[in-house]
Amino acid sequence: MELHQLEYVLAVAKYNGFTRAAEEIKTSQSSLSQQISKLENELGVSLFARTTRSVQLTPAGKEFITHARQIMSTINEAQRCISEYASFEKGHLLLGIIPIIGHYRIPNLMASFKKNFPRVTLSLLEDQDDELYGMLRSSKIDAAFVHHAVTDSRLKLYPIVTDQMVVVTSEHHPFAGCKSVALKNLKYENIILPPPSSGHHIDFCNACRSAGFEPNILITCSSVKTILGFVREELGIAVLSSDVAAMDWERGIRTISLTPIIKQNLYLTTLNNANLPPALKVFIKFTLQWIDSHNC
């Protein structure tokens, strides 16, 4: 049995005749008829009942057609996938990022990816976690770097960075001389946080509720530099990821450990789909290997 014989059978079944089938597959009627007869002899059954006026599938032919369609569909899909891999270097990826992504080593990761795959274009769309998840679910972006982990069977999350939250105060705040501060002791503090739709905000508020209180959030802001400016001016204290706080260290600011530890991880998230674009599959693999080698 050969693939072209399956194509011939499907064409004859489609048109219930040899004339139009031969035209579609661009072969002669005699060649078409010979190939189908050869296949029937090999199978030991007749696939078509032939009369002078029509060609109809036999019961065995109807069964055979079902499998032939599945086989050709699988082959076509395999060819499509391989074709995509052959040309993925010309692909384009639209990645969602949270505003503080630059405080991690993700820009360095993307630069490394571009050096290895210069013909893949990267576009970045900045927003908070909730908005990025919404865009990912509706396929408006290919992947996203987010803080907050969600339980959703439609999504797949890859841990990229493991971090934890810290308290940031002015040098004159009562906490400034402490090595650590208990989460419950933040109950009466004015707190400055990233926006409510950010993963950081969500995770911190959930931790406070688990500790038995609702945090008094004075200001929300997406700019770390602005948050630290408010802290330095003693409007309140901030709770940030330790990597973020460390990179934007300023004079007049103190960073204090928080207990119990509130983990703050960074994830690369995509749709949980085996048919992701080849360029995205390569980006995921490259990212995981790069993170592992750099021990971020």
Describe the protein's architecture and organization.
This protein is α/β, with parallel strands linked by helices. The protein has a 6-stranded mixed sheet, sandwiched between helices. The protein has 10 helices and 13 strands. The chain has helices at residues 3-15, 19-25, 29-43, 59-87, 106-116, 129-137, 199-210, 224-232, 242-247, 278-294; strands spanning 48-50, 55-57, 92-97, 121-126, 143-146, 155-161, 165-170, 180-182, 190-193, 216-220, 237-241, 253-259, 266-271. The chain has 3 domains: 3-87, Winged helix-like DNA-binding domain superfamily/Winged helix DNA-binding domain (Arc Repressor Mutant, subunit A); 91-161 and 266-294, Periplasmic binding protein-like II (D-Maltodextrin-Binding Protein, domain 2, 3-Layer(aba) Sandwich); 165-259, D-Maltodextrin-Binding Protein, domain 2. The protein is 43% helix and 22% strand.
Chain-wise SSE layout:
Blueprint: H1 3-15, H2 19-25, H3 29-43, E1 48-50, E2 55-57, H4 59-87, E3 92-97, H5 106-116, E4 121-126, H6 129-137, E5 143-146, E6 155-161, E7 165-170, E8 180-182, E9 190-193, H7 199-210, E10 216-220, H8 224-232, E11 237-241, H9 242-247, E12 253-259, E13 266-271, H10 278-294
- Helical content, roughly? 40-55%
CATH class of the largest domain: Alpha Beta
What is the overall number of helices?
Answer: 10
CATH superfamily of the largest domain: Periplasmic binding protein-like II
What would the CATH topology of the largest domain be? D-Maltodextrin-Binding Protein, domain 2
Give start-end ranges of low-pLDDT stretches.
Answer: none
Strand order of the largest sheet: 8-12-7-11-9-10
Q: Tell me, briefly, the overall form.
A: elongated
Domain HTH lysR-type: 1-58
GO molecular function: DNA binding; DNA-binding transcription factor activity
Pfam families: HTH_1 (PF00126), LysR_substrate (PF03466)
Family: Belongs to the LysR transcriptional regulatory family.
